[in-house]
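Quick one from the shared queue. A colleague (R.T.) flagged Signal peptidase I as missing a structural entry in our internal table.

Convert sequence to structure tokens.
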Amino acid sequence: MEKIKKSKIKIFFDVFYGVIFVALILIAGLVALSALNIPRGLRLYTVQSGSMMPTLPIGSLIISQSQKEYKTGDIITFKSEKDIFVKNPKNTTTHRLVEIKNDKNVISYITKGDANNSPDATPISSDLILGKTVFSIPLLGFPVAFGRTQKGLIVMIVIPATLIIYSELLNIKKEIIKLIAQRKKTKKNEIKNS
């Protein structure tokens, strides 16, 4: 009975360890992807405000892809004028494209958050647009945003490393116990045969 109880506890901890480890690896991978340029113009962003509620709830992870042209109704992510030469700006905005203006062959875009009462005050130029939202996953942005902080990076490294070290120490302990038991058995056999 005691052996069955220990076995169930071990299975529980093995499953728990596996789930935590896979979740941390997934989140760490998403954090890495959000900091890098993914092929085909794809980029990951985290929704930080409620301006696009209910379409994009706070904490959503969005996948944005650069397009050759944008249409009214597209949800686009763009950077501010001060970050025009920054390839991966820290602060971006994701709003719906509500109007396209063409003034003397100069195209500008008017955007608006779905939850906002009025359009954004400043039109944006095409060189500020980072991409169109092609996919979103609610709530997954929270751990990714946390992973991009200094504390989050520490957690993403320290917890998996601790779990791996603990697991390996348990494996080493088991092997040592097996080795000791095998040596005792060998000594007993030697004593019997002498």
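Residues 150-193 form the longest helix (44 residues).
The beta strands are 42-46, 61-65, 75-79, 92-103, 106-112, 124-125, 129-137.
Added to the table.
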